């Protein structure tokens, strides 16, 4: 899986669960850092 980001979140049970997969293009938005987002193209250029 080239140029992909797997996104995980910590559950109430303190276990990480995969919540998203972004491939090639798109925007990752943090649920922890309010207002933080980055385009995948910026990461993989």
Q: Can you characterise this structure?
A:
The chain is mainly β. The chain has one domain (4-43). It is 9% helix and 47% strand. The protein has 1 helix and 4 strands. The protein has a two-stranded antiparallel sheet with strand order 1-2. Strands 3-4 form a two-stranded antiparallel ribbon. The radius of gyration is 12 Å and the shape is flat. It starts with a strand and ends with a helix. The mean pLDDT is 90.
- Please give the domain count: 1
- Beta content comes to over 45%
Strand order of the largest sheet: 1-2
**What is the number of E strands?**
4
Helix content: under 10%
Mean pLDDT: 90
- The low-confidence parts are none
Short key terms for the protein model shown above:
47% strand; single chain; 45 residues; two-stranded antiparallel sheet; 9% helix; flat; mainly beta; two-stranded antiparallel ribbon
Tell me briefly what this model is.
This protein is mostly beta strands and 45 residues long.
How would you summarize the topology of this molecule?
Blueprint: E1 4-10, E2 16-23, E3 27-29, E4 37-39, H1 40-43
Antiparallel strand pairs: 1-2, 3-4
